[in-house]
């Protein structure tokens, strides 16, 4: 998948805003310092954010957020992005895009919360509220959101390839046993809202506390297990137990959440997907956390 971010510049965004939203044409456009993979993000003035998909593959995220975030915001205890306008292709850029209200705060990857226990409780409470929000007619999992909220079985072949590629560097038998256990545990309740990418970079912190959740591009209704992966990618020891106790989901869902974390970590560590050096290092830490957790249960 070819990224097009080099062609998504401040000048392009300024031209798109000026043409399509002339009432904002006098506002300066500035690229934010920390960019994501799926989108390029720019400040428009001091109170708005333009978000442009980095490739056509991510364009569906624009429509999901435009359609569903206004309906979810009143059901959630933390701020989430508020769409203000839907942009069209133009000036050689081929995707639809969005303008949102700017949310103050620093992402938790660069500005860690003051204490993980409170962070775990606040994040768990947010996910509980998200699951309880009315989910009728919400989008189902599929290729458009990389099967978040769907079945792990979609990634079975890829996971086994990754484990094989890591032969001699990971405990293969424990990894495969954890994966197989997760495949046998199914979500037995009606579909619920799933964020799909609960990661530190999508969690905003103000004054040391969780204040907002952003980037709902993988949003769907389905199995919430993937939203638990952060229990192994970030939380440790008692803080992990606090988070899982707060979300209060059955053991099978926790096992699937753990497998989602293991899948992502192994495909990164094995080189099946290319990413940053920082994420490469953290993938090994996640693998160790998951396998230690599985062995502790044996």
How would you summarize what this structure contains?
This protein is α+β, with helices and mostly antiparallel strands and 298 residues long. Helices cover 40% and strands 14% of the residues. The chain is built from nine helices and ten strands.
Keyword list:
2 domains, 9 helices, Aminoglycoside 3'-phosphotransferase, Chain: A, domain 2, 10 strands, alpha+beta, five-stranded antiparallel beta sheet, three-stranded antiparallel beta sheet, 14% strand, Phosphorylase Kinase, domain 1, 298 residues, 40% helix, single chain
Query: What value does the Rg take, in angstroms?
Result: 19 Å
- Gross geometry: globular
Number of domains: 2
Uncertain runs are none
Structural class: alpha+beta
The CATH superfamily of the largest domain is known as Aminoglycoside phosphotransferase (APH), C-terminal lobe
CATH class of the largest domain: Alpha Beta
What's the CATH architecture of the largest domain? Alpha-Beta Complex
Mean pLDDT value: 95
Task: Spell the H/E element sequence.
Answer: HEEEHEEEHHHEEEEHHHH
Estimate the helix proportion, in percent: 25-40%
Major sheet strand order: 1-2-3-5-4
Number of strands: 10
CA distance, first residue to last residue: 40 Å
Instruction: Count the DSSP helices.
Output: 9
> What share of residues are in beta strands?
5-15%
Q: Major sheet, described briefly?
A: 5 strands, antiparallel
* CATH topology descriptor of the largest domain: Aminoglycoside 3'-phosphotransferase, Chain: A, domain 2
Task: Give a description of the structure.
With 298 residues, this protein is of the alpha+beta class. It folds into two domains: 5-103, Phosphorylase Kinase, domain 1 (2-Layer Sandwich); 107-297, Aminoglycoside 3'-phosphotransferase, Chain: A, domain 2, CATH 3.90.1200. It contains nine helices and ten strands. The strands form three sheets. The chain has a five-stranded antiparallel beta sheet with strand order 1-2-3-5-4, sandwiched between helices. The longest helix is centred in the last third of the chain and has 21 residues, at 277-297.
């Amino acid at each position: 998948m070819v990224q097009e971010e080099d062609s998504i510049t401040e000048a392009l965004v300024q031209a798109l805003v000026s043409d399509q939203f002339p009432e904002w044409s006098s506002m300066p456009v500035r690229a934010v310092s920390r960019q994501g993979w799926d989108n390029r993000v720019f400040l428009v003035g001091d109170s708005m954010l333009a978000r442009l998909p980095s490739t056509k593959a991510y364009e569906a995220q624009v429509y999901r957020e435009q359609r569903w975030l206004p309906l979810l915001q009143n059901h959630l205890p933390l701020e989430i992005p508020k769409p203000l306008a839907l942009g069209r292709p133009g000036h050689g850029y081929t995707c639809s895009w969005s303008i949102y209200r700017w949310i103050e705060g620093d992402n938790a990857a660069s500005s860690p919360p003051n204490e993980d226990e409170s962070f775990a409780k606040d994040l768990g409470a947010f996910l509980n509220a998200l699951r309880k929000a009315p989910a009728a007619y919400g989008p189902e999992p599929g290729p458009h959101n990389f099967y978040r909220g769907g079945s792990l079985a979609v990634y079975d072949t890829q996971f086994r390839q990754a484990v094989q590629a890591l032969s001699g560097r990971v405990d293969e038998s424990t990894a495969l046993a954890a994966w197989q256990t997760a495949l046998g545990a199914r979500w037995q309740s009606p579909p619920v809202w799933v964020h799909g990418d609960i990661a530190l970079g999508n969690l905003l912190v103000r004054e040391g506390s969780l204040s907002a959740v952003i980037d709902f591009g993988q949003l769907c209704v389905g199995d919430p297990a993937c939203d638990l992966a952060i229990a192994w990618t970030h939380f440790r020891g008692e803080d992990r137990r606090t988070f899982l106790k707060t979300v209060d989901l059955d053991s099978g869902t926790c096992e699937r959440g753990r497998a989602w974390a293991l899948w992502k970590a192994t495909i990164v560590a094995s080189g099946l997907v290319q990413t940053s050096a920082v994420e490469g290092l953290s993938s090994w830490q996640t693998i160790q956390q998951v396998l230690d957790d599985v062995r502790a249960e044996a």
